[in-house]
Amino acid sequence: MSESSEAKLDRSSRAATRRAAEAVVGRLISLSGWSAIAVLTAIAVFLASNAWKALSDPQVGLIRMLTGTSWYPTSTPPLYGFIQYIIASLRVTGVALAIAVPIGIAAAIYISEFAPARLKGIAKSVIEFMAAVPSVVYGLMGVYVLGPALKDLFGMQSALTALSAGVVLAFMALPTIISISEDAMHSVPSELRQGSLALGNTHWQTTRKVIVPAASSGIFASVMLGLGRAIGETMVVLMVAGNSMELTWSLTTSARPLTAVIAGEMGEVVQGGLHYSALFVVGLTLFVVTFLVNLAADLVLERQRARWRR
Predict the structure, then answer these.
(1) Spatial distance between the Cα atoms of 71 and 212, rounded to a whole number of angstroms
(2) Facing residues of 255 across strands?
(3) Residue 279 in contact with residue 82, Cβ under 8 Å?
(4) CA R_g for the chain
(5) Would you give the DSSP letter of residue 242?
(6) If residue 71 lies in a helix (H) or strand (E), which one and from where to where?
(7) Omega into 189 within 30° of 0, i.e. cis?
(8) For each successive 10 residues of the chain (310 residues), what is the average pLDDT?
(9) pTM for this one?
(10) Under a CB-based contact definition with an 8 Å cutoff, are residues 262 and 178 in contact?
(11) What is the pLDDT of residue 1?
């Protein structure tokens, strides 16, 4: 066999091996995707099946639970209205987003467009560290440092309030908002920057008029994921929010968000009972809200990727 024939066979063999490896990897990726969908479906089925007893009970039902203002599982008949807990979640999450969104986007703009390379590396390391800090540590800071400071600053009666919990959650949501927003701005094609600068715009004008609008989908997605992070947090709100069942929109009073209800009562209920099932309705509500928030963020991110692929 000639040398050229051997070379052709060798190239053909390597190509066949590469195609086989690519096929295996493609199947593994596909399997991983379908596995994630299967797990998500199993979680939804698990929550719905355990919540069905409360949902189908004529004295409880979904409408009464979503609109009722009283949560007294031991009364006769038992009451499982949790609108006050939904409002508490909105109060705490609203404070968190009001603080985290402007600070997070401003920090992302600085890191992406203005920070020196060395400072950018340090900032990213700090953000990654913030994301890795356990939530119970943030909770301890809220109870013993931030809560008392806010109490003295605003003259509140208690250090454990919706405001205190919201501020702590803002620190927890910041890494998500900063990281994804910075990645979105970094992924804007350099041709847009160069074109804007060539037209005579300053660096700040280019950032404000070109970079931020071009990365707006990614920034929106970061806000949605930060919202999901804040609304699904359990330990911080259980420790810092004050655990009050009061129906109010005030930020200076205690609150009991949905996650705190589940964490605080699940260990005390009879498995399979009506109270147990009602807590699963609360969990199912959180699951649906979080799923919709993350789905919206993913759709927006995919739209941005499609825009830059064209």
Answers:
(1) 45
(2) 242
(3) no
(4) 25
(5) B
(6) strand 71-72
(7) no
(8) 58 73 83 87 92 88 87 86 91 94 94 88 88 90 92 89 93 92 87 84 86 86 87 89 86 90 86 90 90 78 65
(9) 0.83
(10) no
(11) 47
Phi and psi (nearest 5°) for 250?
A: -65, 140
Kindly list the domain boundaries of the chain, sorted by start residue.
3-56, 79-309
Are 227 and 97 in contact by the 8 Å Cβ rule? The answer is yes
Return the pLDDT at 29: 85
CATH of domain 79-309: 1.10.3720.10
How far is 305 from 291, CA to CA, in rounded Å? Answer: 21
Give 152-193 as a DSSP string: HHHT-S-S-SHHHHHHHHHHHHHHHHHHHHHHHHHTS-HHHH
How would you class 3 by CB atoms within 10 Å of its CB: exposed for 0-12, middle for 13-18, buried for 19 or more? exposed
Q: How many residues does this entry show for the chain?
A: 310
The two three-digit tokens of residue 98, written as one number? 């009001």
State which amino acid sits at residue 106: A
Q: Say if CB 189 and CB 308 are below 8 A apart.
A: yes
E strand or H helix at 72: strand 71-72
DSSP run (H or E) holding 79: strand 79-80
Residue whose C-alpha is closest to residue 218's, from 285, 146, 307? 307
Name the DSSP class of 268.
G
Instruction: Please state, in angstroms and as integers, the Cα–Cα distance from residue 61 to each residue in 7, 64, 65, 82, 166, following that order.
Output: 74, 6, 6, 12, 31
